[in-house]
Amino acid sequence: MTHSAIDPAREGRFILLLGALVAFGPLAIDLYLPALPAIASGLAASAEAVQLSITVFLAGFSLGMLFYGPLSDRYGRRTVMLSGIALFAAASLACMLATAVEQLIVARFVQALGGGAASVLARAVVRDVYTPTEAIRKLSLMAMVTAIAPLLAPLLGSLLLVQFGWRGTFAAVVLWGVLSLLVVWFQLPETLPAGQRGQLPLSRAFAIYGSLLVDPVALGLMLAGGMSFAAMFAYITASPFYFIELHGFSPFAYGLLFASNAVGIFAANYVNSRLVKAQGPAVMAGFGSGLGFLGALLLWVAAGVNDALPAVIVGLFMVVSMTGLLGANCVGLLMARYPQNAGAAAALFGASQFGLGMLASAAVSYTHDGSGRPMAWVILVTAAASLAGYLLFRRAAR
């Protein structure tokens, strides 16, 4: 299946479907955030134990991605994706039926292992079908679809919580998994023909990760995109306490603020999809890492000066908006560099995003001191590392 095989009428549906598949991770996290206190009381567990279900989800998601990339380069995208989505749906059902917090934590880990398939392989499918620059445009359009998940998920999650209790939020995720399975089964053909698959034994296919990790161009791209994503996870972890408890925002007002940042991701990707052909992905990624760092600097100054809220909000908006733009350009450039191992390249990129996100989330929790300063510090460090990664990429690429 090549670009020419998709007529324009079907192309919109194709990108919509792939964007929805990339949203598996954000949806499975953001949908149940409003239900965390209810889950803690429902399962007679501590808040820390329930929060652990977010950490193990990120770990499982990263690990799953690393498996699916080389497997799909070897056996094709479709079968591997269907297997992962089926595992996600079954584990979501186990989450819904959990009667103890330990069961929930194990089920969340398995759910994440399955969910990684859809997220990473949707990106690899784009690389199979389009030329490198066209692929980055499509990845930006997909990121716009994906940005809708954190926009709507917490609001939908709180509605489901009120109507059906915390198990209702997991019931919605089960439904999402089953629907995705059916849509992929009937609508997504195989995009990597047998003749184009890697013929290496699996052990060698996994060894490609070693070559990626010692390639300074690849390392720079993973740092630029991954550290920007980590900054967003620091914000996701710290912001409920910062805005609701420290500054007295209502949960609804916090939901609106959360949504406005998702609109920023949406807008940045729209601009990227329009400009990337003329400017090139490397230049657009430079804008992203530079603006993200400026936003982090503003946030750090504002949090240190008596929590100047308007400046904090503007700084966060700049940092979060750039994550999607950096993600689309960096993963697109990485897959273009490794066309024979696009699945593995997309997998390592995705795993580095979620792995670094997990570390940033843990750093914010560990340094929590009742103020906004730990959030500002962690975001400043990650944004600086993202900019350093971009500079490493540019230098190595020359």
CATH architecture: Up-down Bundle
> Could you give me the name of the CATH homologous superfamily?
MFS general substrate transporter like domains
Q: Tell me what portion of residues adopts beta-strand conformation.
A: under 5%
Q: First CA to last CA: what distance?
A: 34 Å
**Sheet of most strands:** none
* CATH topology heading: Growth Hormone, Chain: A
- H/E element sequence: HHHHHHHHHHHHHHH
Taken from the alpha-carbon principal axes, the silhouette is: globular
* Unreliable spans: 1-5
> What is the count of helical runs?
15
Number of domains: 1
* Helical proportion, percent range: over 70%
> CATH class, anyone?
Mainly Alpha
Structural class, judged by helices and strands?
mainly alpha
Residue-averaged pLDDT = 86
* DSSP strand tally: 0
The Cα radius of gyration reads 20 Å
Structural features, described:
- This protein has 398 residues and is mainly alpha-helical.
- It has a single domain (3-192, 200-397), classed as MFS general substrate transporter like domains (Growth Hormone, Chain: A).
- The protein is 85% helix and 0% strand.
- The protein has 15 helices and no strands.
- The chain has helices at residues 8-22, 24-30, 36-42, 47-75, 77-97, 101-129, 132-164, 166-187, 202-213, 216-246, 251-279, 281-304, 309-337, 342-366, 373-397.
- Helix 1 crosses helix 7 (132-164), helix 11 crosses helix 13 (309-337) and helix 12 (281-304) packs antiparallel against helix 15.
- It is globular.
- Mean pLDDT is 86; it is low at 1-5.
